[in-house]
Request: fold
Amino acid sequence: MDEKTLRSAEEQHRLDAAITQMFEHSICFNEHLGLKVGALWEDLVSVSFNMREEFIGHFLYGRLHGGVIASVLDTTGGLAIMASIASTNPAESSDEILQRFTYLGTLDMRVDYLRAGIGTRFICEAETVRLGGRIGVARMGLKNQDGVLIATGNAAYIVSG
Reply:
């Protein structure tokens, strides 16, 4: 692919900002969780959020609820797929890439809860394992602020209509 077909740095910045805006604010559930995009690279994305009282799943120990864990893993995996779609279509504008996301949806997900969700801040990282024409697969991991791995996930996403 020659340089004329690659997304300009300005257009890439616009795309990154649009994806971040969509992820953090347009998806109301993500906004409710307080998810913040950290890394947004083609091979790795990260999302962080702070522990809040309404996220407690075990009232005696203050552990993070398993549903919050699964939701964060799922949304971060979807973000990884989004980043991969953008990187594999470098000639498309931000608007064209954002249009591709209208098809994105979770097909299947497995979560392994490894340790109690104890912490004040959590970071979830995800990478795309495979991106095909119709299905994308991501691998995710959730850690606390001390780097303790709490849960992992693997998910398949539909990426086209």
Remarks:
- The two ends are 26 Å apart (CA to CA).
- The longest strand covers residues 121-131.
- The chain has four helices and eight strands.
- The mean pLDDT is 93.
